[in-house]
Amino acid sequence: xxxxxxxxxxxxxxxxxxxxxxxxxxxxxxxxxxxxxxxxxxxxxxxxxxxxxxxxxxxxxxxxxxxxxxxxxxxxxxxxxxxxxxxxxxxxxxxxxxxxxxxxxxxxxxxxxxxxxxxxxxxxxxxxxxxxxxxxxxxxxxxxxx
Length: 146
Hints:
Blueprint: H1 2-11, H2 17-42, H3 44-50, H4 54-67, H5 71-79, H6 82-102, H7 116-145
């Protein structure tokens, strides 16, 4: 995402009115979204409802994930292609479910980055990186051998 933002910023140096307008609209949308999120989170009635039970938590999730996602989440969704975003979303859902079931167990005195969710996620990332490295090395060997 940072790479794409840098590319956009580099392109802003050229005189393209439509691009400048699009950036201004995006910034305005992000600002309005964040102001609405802050106002909603400051409203005592909404906070009581969100913490009141299953329905409140479901509505709070829908508001946070769909209706008023954070500007970062919105921009991330705009920059990352759907298959990659779907995998990340599935990982987030799996982590939330795991934490939800783990909340019923007694607490341990381990740091959060040593939780089961973090270790499994880190292992999957490392495994994917190692698989990509192996594929790249195999391709390099195949090309160098002729």
